[in-house]
Inverse folding.
């Protein structure tokens, strides 16, 4: 069968590692922050495409626990851009039926940004058309460490520690594991994204820099996903 004819399988949950903003800007002779701006401006269109495809959960990796290692101006520039995004898009997204969630630690973030994130979560909490998780100050190892701390503090007996208990103590408690993870810009690594949850995710690595990622590239990635044979350790269903 020709690749284009593969019936499109729609994953329930897609994770997106939004990489390549800096290179997008550098290629245009612009400062890195211009790339981050273009990247944040691209979010809305990708959410709209996700709704159109019928995807129920999208998780966007916007700032990792390791991104604090960047120059201060870049770090706080990114924070400002996220705050602007929430100011501008929360109400329109709410009207579209989008539920907004955050994964990661809020504690090191500027209080004004934390307030905005909490406002967006609260306003949209009853929406179910699509759930958008913003991974901001998020790291997979940090998340697992925090879960272990909570479990130990609860005094649970070692024999009662199960995979389900660990999952319930992650930021993503109650959210299905990602089926597909898309990392833009051609880099092929996890960079600490959804370490636990991605155990059986399919990964794709389009060369497109994040600000240029759009519905067409998204559809191509869904086609690639549709051709994969997910075996989960068992035998092929084909
Ligand atoms: C991704 O783009 C955004 C963040 C990590 C915050 P980059 O800033 O990593 O862009 P490149 O990888 O330098 O091109
Ligand atoms: C991963 O991108 C984090 C985000 C996209 C938020 P990075 O650009 O930070 O990852 P590395 O450093 O290239 O692995
Ligand atoms: Mg990068």
């Amino acid at each position: 069968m020709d690749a284009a004819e593969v019936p499109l399988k729609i994953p329930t949950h897609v994770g997106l590692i939004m990489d390549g903003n800096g290179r997008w800007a550098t290629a245009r002779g612009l400062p890195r922050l211009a790339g981050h701006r273009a990247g944040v401006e691209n979010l809305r269109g990708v959410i709209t495409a996700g709704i159109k495809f019928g995807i129920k959960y999208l998780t966007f990796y916007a700032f990792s626990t390791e991104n604090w290692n960047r120059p201060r101006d870049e770090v706080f520039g990114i924070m400002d851009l996220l705050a602007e995004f929430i100011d501008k898009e929360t109400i329109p997204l709410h009207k579209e039926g989008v539920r907004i969630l955050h994964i990661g630690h809020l504690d090191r973030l500027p209080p004004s940004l934390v307030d905005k994130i909490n406002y967006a979560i609260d306003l949209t909490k009853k929406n179910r058309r699509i759930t958008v998780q913003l991974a901001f100050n998020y790291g997979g190892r940090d998340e697992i460490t925090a879960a272990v701390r909570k479990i130990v503090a609860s005094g649970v007996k070692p024999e009662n520690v199960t995979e389900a208990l660990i999952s319930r103590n992650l930021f993503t408690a109650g959210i299905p594991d990602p089926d597909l993870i898309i990392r833009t810009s051609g880099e092929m690594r996890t960079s600490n994204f959804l370490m636990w949850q991605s155990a059986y995710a399919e990964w794709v690595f389009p060369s497109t820099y994040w600000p240029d990622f759009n519905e067409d590239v998204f559809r191509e990635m869904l086609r690639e996903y549709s051709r994969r044979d997910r075996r989960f350790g068992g035998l092929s269903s084909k």
Notes: The chain has a mean pLDDT of 97. The beta strands are 13-17, 57-64, 98-103, 130-138, 180-183, 202-204. The first strand starts at residue 13 and ends at 17.
